[in-house]
Amino acid sequence: MALVLVVDDEADIRLIARVVLTSAGHEVIEASSGEAALEHLEERRPDAILLDVRMPGMDGWQVLDRVRNERGDLPVVVFTANVAARAEAPTPWQRYEYMLTKPFAPDQLLEAVERAIDGAPAS
To answer: Which domain holds residue 93?
Structure first.
């Protein structure tokens, strides 16, 4: 069982992720903003983060930058409705391995998170 921080400004997406991940035995912490995600990271270290790219205020790329600077190799799965997000990512993250495009199937979400936790290459 892993602890996963789900970060998305859309409550419905957080709910779907929570249901999928908890059904597979994982524990979920939710954050509705990048700022809230960083606050959670000060309190607990999750095994992985599921991180939306487009959010008001601090976007996912800014959160990812802070995570990499402060938490090193913490596995992060980036997800977005924007299919061009990989190309739009700041230079260090353009080849990011774990990326999901919304909408996604529950099994795609679970597979991406579990592969990231296990350190397996993205499919």
So the answer is: 3-118
Half-sphere exposure of 78 (CA within 13 A, CB side): 25
Round to whole Å and give the CA distance between 68 and 66: 5
- Tens digit of each residue's pLDDT (9 = 90 or more) over 25-50: 999 999 999 999 999 999 999 999 99
Structure tokens at 80: 């977005």
User: b/e per residue, 62-72, with b = 16+ CB within 10 A?
Assistant: ebbeebeeeee
Question: Is 79 within 8 Å of 51 (Cβ atoms)?
Answer: yes
User: The pTM is what?
Assistant: 0.87
The answer to whether 37 and 31 are in contact (CB under 8 A) is yes
Tokens 């976007």 — which residue? 59
CATH number of the domain residue 87 falls in: 3.40.50.2300
| Backbone torsions φ then ψ of 81, nearest 5 degrees | -85, -10
Has residue 123 been placed in a domain? no
CB atoms within 10 A of CB 49: 27
DSSP 3-state assignment of 59?
coil
